[in-house]
C-alpha cells in the first residue's frame, strides 16, 4: 500500500517570495510522483511529474520539484510566487504499472500582496 | 478539445434518492476512474476501469456502482444517497505508452450535497 503526506495544510506567502510545499511518500515499490494544482472551483491540472531520470523536474508556471529517494520526498518549489498561484496543491503517487493515484491531503497556498 | 466532461456540475439529493454522475472523455483513453474530494483528505479513489467491460473497486467503493460499456463513458451511480456522500466528485482518464502511464486528465468536478 502507498501513502502520501503533505506536511503543511496551509501556506501563506507574500507575492514575489519563494515557496516550498513538502511531500513525503511511503511505498514498498518504486513509484511515479506527481504534483497537481487545483484553482478555485476547477478540476486538477498537472504541474509536473517524475517518472525516472533526473531527480530535478521542471514543470509549468515556473514550478520545480526534486525527487529524493533516500528521504522518500518530492518537495515542490517556486522561487517567486504570483497572486495567480493562489490555489490548492496536491502531491500524488502511482505504481509504474498502474494508473491508480494516491493523493496527499493537499496544501492551500494563499499569496498575499 | 473537450477532454473529460462531467455532468451535472452541481446536484442536491435527498437521503435515499439515487442518481448517476456522468463522465465522458474524447481522448480514447483506456483508463478511467472516479475520485471523491473531501477537505483535508485529498482525493480518494472510488472505482476505476482499465477498459470497456472491466471495472474494479478503489479505496472507498461502498454505496457506489460503475459500468464501462464504451471506451468513452464511465458513469458513477449512487444507489441510495447518504449525507456521508456529500462531496466533490472528479472523473479522470489516462492512457499508457508501452509500459508507462501518461498523466491523468481530470474533469471539472460535480459538487454533490445530500440532505
Percentage of residues in DSSP E strands of chain A: over 45%
Morphology call of chain A: globular
Radius of gyration of chain A from the CA trace? 13 Å
Largest interface: A-B, 27 and 26 residues
Please describe the biggest sheet of chain A, giving its number of strands, its sense, and whether it closes into a barrel: 6 strands, mixed
How would you state the average pLDDT of chain A, rounded? 93
The residue ranges of chain B in which pLDDT falls below 50 over 5 or more consecutive positions are: none
Broad structural category of chain A: mainly beta
Unreliably modeled segments of chain A: none
Characterize the structure shown.
The complex is a heterodimer of chains A (113) and B (115). By secondary structure, chain A is mainly β. Chain A is 0% helix and 53% strand. Chain A has strands spanning 3-6, 10-14, 19-21, 23-26, 32-38, 44-50, 56-58, 64-68, 73-78, 87-94, 102-103, 107-112. Chain A is globular and about 40 Å long. The relative contact order of chain A is 0.33. The mean pLDDT of chain A is 93. Chain B is mainly β. Chain B has no helices and 13 strands. Chain B has strands spanning 4-7, 10-13, 19-25, 31-37, 43-51, 54-57, 64-66, 76-78, 87-94, 96-97, 100-101, 105-106, 110-114. In chain B, strands 2, 4, 5, 6, 9, 12 and 13 form a seven-stranded mixed β-sheet that branches. Chain B has a four-stranded antiparallel β-sheet with strand order 1-3-8-7, with no helix packed on it. A two-stranded antiparallel ribbon of chain B has the order 10-11. Chain B is globular. Chain B starts with a strand and ends with a strand. At the A-B interface, strand 5, strand 6, strand 10 and strand 11 of A face strand 4, strand 5, strand 9 and strand 11 of B.
Give short descriptive properties of this protein:
heterodimer, A: about 110 residues, mainly beta, four-stranded antiparallel β-sheet, 12 strands, globular, B: about 120 residues, seven-stranded mixed β-sheet, 13 strands, about 0% helix, about 50% strand
Amino acid at each position: 500500500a502507498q501513502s502520501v503526506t503533505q506536511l503543511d495544510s496551509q501556506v501563506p506567502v507574500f507575492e514575489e517570495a519563494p515557496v516550498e510545499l513538502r511531500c513525503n511518500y511511503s511505498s514498498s515499490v518504486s513509484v511515479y510522483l506527481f504534483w497537481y494544482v487545483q484553482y478555485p472551483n476547477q478540476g486538477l491540472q498537472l504541474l509536473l511529474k517524475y517518472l525516472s531520470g533526473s531527480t530535478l523536474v521542471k514543470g509549468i508556471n515556473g514550478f520545480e520539484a526534486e525527487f529524493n529517494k533516500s528521504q522518500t520526498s518530492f518537495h515542490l518549489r517556486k522561487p517567486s510566487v504570483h497572486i495567480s498561484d493562489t490555489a490548492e496543491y496536491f502531491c500524488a503517487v502511482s505504481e509504474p504499472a498502474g494508473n491508480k493515484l494516491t493523493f496527499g491531503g493537499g496544501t492551500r497556498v494563499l499569496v498575499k500582496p | 478539445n473537450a477532454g473529460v466532461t462531467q455532468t451535472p456540475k452541481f446536484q442536491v439529493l435527498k437521503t435515499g434518492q439515487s442518481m448517476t454522475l456522468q463522465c465522458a472523455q474524447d481522448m480514447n483513453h483506456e483508463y478511467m476512474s472516479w475520485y471523491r474530494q473531501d477537505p483535508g483528505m485529498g482525493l480518494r479513489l472510488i472505482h476505476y476501469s482499465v477498459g470497456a467491460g472491466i471495472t474494479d473497486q478503489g479505496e472507498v467503493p461502498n454505496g457506489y456502482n460503475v459500468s464501462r460499456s464504451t471506451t468513452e463513458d464511465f458513469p458513477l451511480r449512487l444507489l441510495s444517497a447518504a449525507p456521508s456522500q456529500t462531496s466533490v466528485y472528479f472523473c479522470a482518464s489516462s492512457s499508457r505508452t508501452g509500459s508507462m502511464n501518461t498523466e491523468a486528465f481530470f474533469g471539472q468536478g460535480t459538487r454533490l450535497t445530500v440532505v
